[in-house]
Amino acid sequence: MPKQKYYITTAIDYPNAKPHMGHAYEKVIADTLARWHTIKGDDVFFLTGTDEHGQKIEKAAQASGKSPKQFTDEMIIHFKNLCERLNVSYSEFIRTTDKRHTKTAVELFKKVMDKGLIYKGTYSGLYCTGCESFKTDKELQAGLCPDHLKAPEQLSEESYFFKLSEFQQKIIQHIEQHPEFIQPEAKRNEILNRLKEPLKDLSVSRTSFKWGIPLPFDKKHVIYVWFDALLNYISGIGYPTRKFNKYWPCDAHIIGKDIIWFHTVIWPAILLACDIPLPKTVFSHGHITINGQKMSKSLGNVVDPIEMIDKYGADAFRFVLLKDIPPHDDGDFSQENLVARNNTELADALGNLLQRTSVLIHKNFQGNIPVCGKLTQKEKELEDSIPKLDELNALMDSFQWHHVVEKIWAYINRCNKYVNDTEPWKLSNDPERLATVLYTLVEHLRIISILTWPMIPASAEKIAAQIGQKTGKLKDAKFTKKTKGTIAQPQILFKKIETKVQQVQSSVEQKAPAAEDPFSKLNLKVAKIEEVQNHPNADKLYVLKLNAGKEQRQLVAGMKEHYKPEELKGRLIVFVSNLKPAQLRGVESQGMMLAGEKDGKVRVLDPGKAEPGDQVYVEGITPRTEQMTIEDFQKVVLTTKNHIVIYNDKPLKTHNGPIQVELGDGAKIR
Ligand code: ME8
Fold first, then answer.
1. Is the pLDDT assigned to residue 304 strictly greater than 60?
2. What pLDDT shows up at residue 509?
3. CA 51 to chain CA centroid, nearest Å
4. Helices marked H in 117-199 — which ranges?
5. Catalytic residue from among 53, 83, 131, 402
């Protein structure tokens, strides 16, 4: 039977800075899927790479005093190095500056134009360089891009337009008829909802900067970076050669939630315009947060994945990303979890199973795998605990690798229970039974080495080598009585990490600016009001119970004259989380809720779409966590402009957008 093909891609990363945790995460999950299909026996093609054109790269290159080409040539070394260090088994690394790619991009641009689907016009609009896209007023929050929290620039330029609007109905129809096209389902619904609004034609060329693929027939234009970038998925497999025909359509585009629109609306439209079939699935994963906060340079909490690999090893790092970050949602990364996973699931459960088995075989059988004798109920039960391959395949097909990991580790734990139940160290006077028990363990370790290879490839290969085997295919992941070989001298698979890890938070604190800004003393957070009660001893005060993410707080607030309890209950607010607790008329207040006042009107601050526990910050100022006094707080002057709360003319924000308040300019915030 010919092998089934499986073509998987990651997004191609912007190399404007070194790779971050999000890049590492996406590569690890795509690699796990690619490896899973490899052991399933599929002919896998796995594409990753870098997205090197556009204004964002041009600006980063300028800032470092290099030409964009020189800059990206240097930067991509870090991206390739990350793949190597993480053991990412890509088949091809595509750079959008590669000739084969730029040639395809120009050819297809021309093809779409010849079909009358690209025309020349003038574009005026608001452009966000962070997103490399124009923004509509509706997409902005209080005038800022919600992803980059910066005001977009007004641009007006001659541009070629792609008739995106022509494809709206076809795309809706495709999404409706192919439930597997956009996963997870919640994202599919989001996109279908957005598609209820009419699509506007898309500006697909730029004249205001130079760093891009020039249009040969109109050289002052370069191709819009997204039109260029998306085409990597076909240029990377050699469009239009035989290789392309073999692997296209793509089985899974793995991308993050911020770029789903480009992949599920714009990309299909480009493909339809080029008469190329649509990919099977676009899977959108969530974003990684660090200790509960969005990674951001201004917060100083960007974790370098290479540092994690240096410190803990690639497999422990891969494992925690696969186990702890829910595939369909945002998830938090912390070094504490990594250490805990390393010490329990990896060192205690897996490493120990291998170690015990190897030592006992060396002690009793000179390192030779013993011949299996008569199997008892105990062995049958253990065999029954091997995860069902159909179930694992179905979980992988629905992008639920965390459940695959759970099932495999339940099985590993079951193997450890078998060791404890059979007590092979007490069987020296029953050599046949001892042989059977130790054979059984080797056989299960062989199966474990197959099943764990997609997640922790280097360790799986070490397990196989330790028991004198090669890692096999999924079809070999079943109990047989035929395994032979010699066990190597026992090696430690995972070292336990004893040291208390340095909190990422502490590095945030270390990066506090030397000349300290008074605002940096202030640690503002978002909370949800869960309960509103009257203060027992004061007419104007409420006692509020807050959900502040990982903790509960009680606050006393003078809001009774301004809000009814039902107007406050359930509301998201901003509060000073590190204010020294104080007794206010006999009730402890653990922090202070912020509100604005103008012309006698008082309104609480509104953090928009944030979550309880989110950090509120000002670009460039790192908030500290030590307690502050009310006097420190009074030194910080906050006010309002365009309904946004500002400090020294900069907006206060969470990673989801600015903090707003329904008051005119110049309100007093306390
Ligand atoms: O968007 N957690 O590049 P990029 C998880 N060049 N994933 C994250 C993340 C986080 N905190 N932050 C970013 C681009 N990502 C374009 C793609 S594809 C034709 C062009 C993910 O370097 C992000 O969602 O900004 C995206 O899938 C990938 O990292 C690259 O992001």
1. yes
2. 41
3. 18
4. 168-177, 185-194
5. 131
Residue ID of nearest Cα to ligand 1 atom 7: 22
Select from 617, 606, 600, 618 the least CA-distant residue to 668. Answer: 600
Residue 247 neighbours by CB under 8 Å, 6+ apart: 5, 7, 45, 237
Centroid of ligand 1 to alpha carbon of 337 (angstroms):
23
In short, whether 26's Cβ falls inside 6 Å of ligand 1 is yes
Element (H, E) at 247: helix 242-247
CA distances from 461 to 356, 386, 455, 617 (A): 18, 19, 11, 46
- In angstroms, the Cα distances linking 384 to 297, 363, 408, 444 are 50, 29, 13, 11
CA of 539 to the centre of ligand 1 (A): 52
By the 8 A CB rule, do 386 and 447 touch? yes
pTM greater than 0.70 (yes/no): yes
CA of 5 to the centre of ligand 1 (A): 26
- Asked if the model's pLDDT at residue 513 lies above 60, the reply is no
Residue in 613, 604, 596, 626 with CA at minimum distance from that of residue 520? 626
Considering the candidates 56, 83, 128, 598, report the single residue annotated as catalytic.
128
Map out the domains of the chain with their CATH numbers.
Answer: 334-476 (1.10.730.10), 515-669 (2.40.50.140)
Residue 499: predicted pLDDT: 63
CB atoms within 10 A of CB 13: 23
Neighbours of 398 (CB within 10 A): 15
Residue recorded with tokens 């998830």: 331
Of the ranges 99-103, 145-149, 207-211, which is most confident? 99-103
User: Which is the catalytic residue, given 297, 363, 484, 564?
Assistant: 297
